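note to self — DONT lose this again. spent like an hour looking for the file last time. sequence + predicted structure for the chain T wanted, 164 res
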Amino acid sequence: MKTASMLGTVILLLACGVSAFAQKPDFSGSWTMDRARSFGLPGNMNQTMVVNQAGDEITLETKLIQPDNERTVKETYVLDGKEREFTPQAPPGQTPPKGKRTVSWMSGGNGILVTEVTTSDTPKGPSTTQVVRKWTIANGELVIAMYVDNPNVSYEAKRIFIKK
């Protein structure tokens, strides 16, 4: 009897563990950046995002707000780990760089990794930039850690968003 009870407990714990492991975050919602706790971006910039997630596809609309400028960036992420071409938005009058993006669930499914490699034509020849974004949700907050690397500079930025 004790063996059957213990076996039942082990099966229940394994089922709960597998269920918790399989639970992936839902990033959907309207988010506002907590400027005071974010770093690595222009000092006068604020940001809001509207994120819609349906299975393994995320669409987002990001507003970048500065005192003399506001722009909206629309993106779609397909979380299948496949490399896809994309065209990053460029400032008015500039030719956008060519880009390739890979988006995948992190191991364990507790967040996503967005890796973008863009190549711009410059007077000195092609210039390649890699940006990696790590999205996670903790304590009801969306945290996007960003790592940028190009021939001129490498830096880290973190944006913390509160759900509206």
